[in-house]
Amino acid sequence: MARASLEIAVVGAGIGGLTAAVALRQAGFDVHVYEQAPELTEVGGGINLGSNAARILYRLGFGDALDREAVRPLTTHQRRWQDGRTLQRAILNPRCEELYGAPHLNVHRADLLSIIATGFPSERIHLGHRLVGLADKGDPTEAWFENGVRISVDVLVGADGIHSAVRAALLGEEAPRFAGCVAYRGLVPVERIADLDLEVGAQSWLGPGAHLVHYFVSRGRLLNFVGWTEHDTWSREDWTDRATIARALSAFEGWHPQIPRIIAAADTCFVWALFDREPLPRWSIARTTMLGDACHPMYPFMAQGAAQAIEDGATLAACLVAGTEDPAAALQRYERLRRPRVTQLQAMSRANKARFHLPDGPEQEARDAEWARAGDRSPEALRWLYEFDASAIETAT
Ligand SMILES: Cc1cc2nc3c(=O)[nH]c(=O)nc-3n(C[C@H](O)[C@H](O)[C@H](O)COP(=O)(O)OP(=O)(O)OC[C@H]3O[C@@H](n4cnc5c(N)ncnc54)[C@H](O)[C@@H]3O)c2cc1C
Hints:
Bound molecules: flavin-adenine dinucleotide
Radius of gyration: 21 Å
Distance between the termini: 22 Å
Helix content: 25-40%
Largest sheet: 8 strands, mixed
Structural class: alpha/beta
């Protein structure tokens, strides 16, 4: 089969779906994207992109735009919640580029999505198409949408997030589980906190049952913060729920003065509850597969959810190029290559929830001593994560 004759539908135009669509189209496939929303949107907020993900985006041709819009944090800095003492601190840039050929980036999600969208023809993005069902009889895959549209394609990729309709169709309905954590998120115009003289870096503040991360985005014009606190129950799962600034401030009462200064400088604050799924036994059936949060949502405590979705797209494109004549086998290969890495990151992200939120006491002191001895966030310590090339499948099985 000629490569161009493989018709591929990507369901979901988030960071994962759009990156995969660009990679697949650049590889020569006939790709269309189907998105439920009436327009391309990403919630306001920042994202950390390690070298492993940045490398893929640079290769896809987004280097100039990322250099313009994103921020290159100089350091990663873990600090203690009450007195601000340094627990560990490491150089990120330019070290990441020297070691791994791509920088570490902090970028606004909306900026990132707009940049990726420039790489894909808008007439091939079908907005207002909510997938409601599919039937994979091996060849071809049929899918239908709430608006009555039906399609028939050679390969269907579910990139439709944690509530994935593709996952439900392939593996059955199963509600995600509340992970016991809620995030308060906000963006602060930097002129309001200029007196804090913050270094251009990513700082994480760790305390009992909570942690708060902040870094610059949008050409350095905004400071993004995300403050995580533990809760027993939660009934909502929506980025757009607004929290009052007062509520966020009370969640971090007693913390170092820098934290309330930052929170109070935001105009609005959103609250978002963390949900999770157990690792899935499989991602693909016949000519349908999944990527990103649809098949491997993870706690954001390795800052790798979107990065892994980006990696998925690169590996998927490489596998389909290598196995165009047998797409089902190519999807199995894609899944075999990807699952061990994301499963490991899911487990590490979960473990970090406990490690980051230790109550003050002997365990926390042991953690701090270990970090002082051998920090685990430096580019050198994370070599296995950052140097990984998701497009290089030749030597993998
Ligand atoms: C607070 C927080 C901080 C984070 N920080 C980081 C970080 O620093 N670094 C990092 O790498 N990751 C981070 N993550 C994780 C990251 O945000 C996600 O892993 C990533 O956005 C998932 O992308 P996705 O494209 O798979 O899914 P989504 O972004 O959820 O996109 C899914 C898309 O599919 C569409 N869709 C859904 N259902 C249908 C349907 N039935 N039909 C058609 N379309 C549909 C949706 O509208 C949406 O556009 C963070 C997450 C959180 C919550």
